[in-house]
Each structure stands twice: as structure tokens, then as C-alpha cells.
Amino acid sequence: MIDSPMASARLMTYLKELVSIDSVNPDLVPGGAGESRIAAKLAEICAEDFALAVESSAVTPGRPNVIAHWPGSGAGQSLLLTGHMDVVGVADYRGEPFSPKVRDGRLYGRGAYDMKGGIAAILAAICILQENDFHPAGDIWLGFVCDEEYASIGTEALVQRLRPDAAILTEPTDEIISIAHRGFAWVEISTAGLAAHGSDFVHGRDAIRHMAPILERIRSLEEEVYPQIQHPLLGRSSVHASRIEGGTEWSTYPDSCTLWIEHRTLPGDSGDQIVTDWRDFIRNEKKQRQDFDATVHLKLERPPLAIEPTQAIVQALATAHTQCFDNPAPIGASFGWLDSAILVAAGIPTVIFGPKGHGAHAAEEWVDPASVERCAQVIAECCRRWCS
Length: 388
Ligand SMILES: [Zn+2]
Known about the structure:
388 residues, alpha+beta, Aminopeptidase, Alpha-Beta Plaits, 2 domains, six-stranded mixed sheet, four-stranded antiparallel sheet, 9 helices, 18 strands, 23% strand, elongated, binds zinc ion
């Protein structure tokens, strides 16, 4: 481990400051505070505590990214340390979401785990490096982005601005080195009916009932098809109904019904293929029952991610972990979709590594500050190796 009393002392301050700032994503929750205040705090820390050059620019009005630059002497590889500043809503949060409290070695508050702990790890890593008089040969970039919890406009803008040789995304991974996550595809299916008086069974066509074969196919994919296809790190893909809407009143046949379906995808899956499969299914159904009709639309798709464990940045982080703690970090996968898919699609080799905790998007959320400090140590050691 690198000796770093100042980083240890500052880490808890950073963590509490970040969690105490409301940064609920306003596209996810109308009226949410957004990232302006937390961006200003991060810009201040980077400029005043670390003397880094900082740019804060709005991706859309009121939704900034913060980019801090620690210039290298010019001869080394560059590295981006990145994480998102926004958090999900607090309507169902138990307790005070933005008054961080430490109990039994856990720091509680909305965003503590997802992912202000990871941002604090980045800040502490810079503190460790500066405290130990490190001078990078390659550039170190810090990228704090908006909007990961909704449409990822922050990271989309970041990859237009920066092309580092590699990136570490400090989303929470419970200290495993994560190199994969599933993607998702949102599909909307509408069935067509015919509105008629409730007693007019001759003309009335019930669009809600026509959703039955669609729901039955979801069951069969879930129970029979997807369990057969396993990815070594990610397990299987999945599909579920998210929302259904149709009908108007008791005595009228519903003329339409709309179902939202979410597919969670594995490497090799694509939204286009999923939609094609649904269209084939609907065509077959139509052959069997004349009055059946449905349309399919792909509303949003985010690709899955699978990075080779042999990639240089994965190896560098693994070596750094061994250097710090005499044991290699387990290599695994992340639970949900992450901005790493956008970084990798832009050609930036990316690895995901962050602290232990619990309760992302849940009614109670906490991060383990001791784990945040261990992550900071590993990230600092990785920077030292990568950017020398
Ligand atoms: Zn997150």
C-alpha cells in the first residue's frame, strides 16, 4: 500500500460532501435537482485541492460534465478516471437521503453506493498520487458526467471530447474487476382491436385479449429458451413485461393495447434481431387467427459489454491490486447496464472497479468507506503504472 495519511483524512470529507448534495436526475424524476451543484463542488475540489485544470461545460442547459486534466510530461499512456454524478429519485427512500450518516462502518445516503463512493475513490486516488509526489508521463483525465441514470448524454459528450488510451469507470463492483455487463432493448408491441358496444360480440374485437399470445411468448422465452443460453460471466439473457395499457370503459371493446417489454441482452444479441423475431412471431400468429394484428417498435437499445481479460488496462488494474494487497482481485461482471458500453464503443478500453456497499436504487443505500479507500489505493497504483 502507498502511504497516504492526507488522502485517508480527506476521503470521508469528500464522501460526505458529495452524498449531501442532491443530484437527482431531472429527466428521471421531473423537478430533480440535476448535476449543477455537485459539478461545481467537484470542479472546486479539482482546482483548489489538486491544482488541476478544470472545464465544466453544459451538455444541455443545467446538465454539466466536469473534466479535470492532470497533464503528463508527454511520454506516457493516458488514462481516464470516470463516474456519473447523478442519482436516482428518493420518493421511496427510507430516512434522510442527503444527510449522510455513518453507522457500523457504513456511510448511508442516496448515491453513496451508486456512485458517489466511486467518485470519492477517484478523488482520493489523486490525493494519494500527489501526496507521494507522483508526476505522470501520460495525461490523467478525470471525467465526472451527468445523466447516466437516464440517457447517458454525459458520457456520450465525454467521448466526443476525450480519447484516452484507457479508462477506469468506478461504478460499484464490490472490489471485483468487472469486464462485462448485459445490454438491454426496449420493445413496444401494440395489438389492434375494434371498439364496439359491450354487447356487440359480432363486431367488437378485444385488443387486450390479443395480448395473450405475446405474454405467452414472454413466458416461453423466460422459462424455456433463455435458460438454455449461458454466457460464462453474465449468465443468461432475460425478458419481462414492464407496463401495459389498454381499454377505456366497462362496456366498450378496447380498440388498442400497448405493452412495454424489456429484454436484457448478452454479447451477440441485437435489438434489430429481437424485433425481427417478434415480427416473425406476429406473422405466424396472424396466419392462425385472422382477427389478430400487432405492431412492434424498438424504442431504445443499449449494447452489452464484454472486455477481454487480457486487455492491458484489465491486467494493469489486476497487477495494481496484487501490488496493494498481495492478492489478485476476482474478475467478474456487473449487474446492470453501465456507461462503459459507450466508452468501449468509442474505442476506449475500459474496466469497471469500485467499492463495496449495498442498495443501488433501493430504499436504503450505503457504501463502505474502508472499501472506498482500498479502491483509491488500487486506482492510484494503477495510474502510477499506466501513466509512468
Ligand atoms: Zn451507477
